[in-house]
Amino acid sequence: MINQQLCPFCSTPAMIGCEHLAVAAEGRYFVRRCVELCQGEKQWGLLRQSRHQRGLASGEWSPEREDYTWLETAFCDEFLKRLRWFGGMEYEWRSGPKGAQTGFWVLLWSKDPQRLWWELLDEFERQARDGRSRVVGSPKAEVRRPKAEPRSQSSLRL
């Protein structure tokens, strides 16, 4: 194992695990595992749908932006770092007996993982609710025109 990480709370190696290791997952499965562990599949779906609709309405939607939400770093920045029970996120290179079992794993730490999952579910619900009210209240982007300033004669000199 390369770059073995230790628990930031009790210094136990991540490979052994401790009560502070909320999840250890391959990078490509990290977001899905977080959503499953907080039991927020429905709320995550609503949140993604409202963000998609808001992006379409504002003209800011793109497939790249949609894919970015699924990256562990973006997910951590947008959802996890603001949580009170978030303890940290690290990467660890793990290799298994088969080539398919080798890769970067994402480690999510928390002083109390169960509270972290409850808090993440609450965050999904809050953001989905806030996003839905923005989409419903304003289906089209508001257009504002700049105020015309009166011209002064001194600005027209050559």
SSE sequence, one letter per element: EHHHHEEH
The poorly predicted ranges are: 135-149
Helical/strand content category: alpha+beta
> Approximately how much helix is present in the residues?
40-55%
* Shape summary: globular
Report, as a whole number of angstroms, the end-to-end distance.
Answer: 73 Å
Q: Strand fraction band?
A: 5-15%
The count of helical stretches stands at: 5
Number of domains: 1
Task: Please explain how this structure is put together.
By secondary structure, the protein is α+β, with helices and mostly antiparallel strands. The chain has one domain. Helix content is 42%, strand content 13%. The protein contains five helices and three strands. It has a three-stranded antiparallel β-sheet with strand order 1-3-2. Strand 2 (88-94) and strand 3 form a beta hairpin. The longest helix has 25 residues, at 113-137. Mean pLDDT is 80; it is low at 135-149.
What is the strand and helix layout of this fold?
Layout: E1 21-26, H1 30-37, H2 41-58, H3 63-68, H4 72-80, E2 88-94, E3 103-109, H5 113-137
Antiparallel strand pairs: 1-3, 2-3
Helix pairs in contact: 2-5
Offer a few descriptive terms.
alpha+beta, 3 strands, globular
How would you summarize this macromolecular structure in one to three sentences?
The chain is of the alpha+beta class and 158 residues long. The chain contains 5 helices and 3 strands, in the order βααααββα.
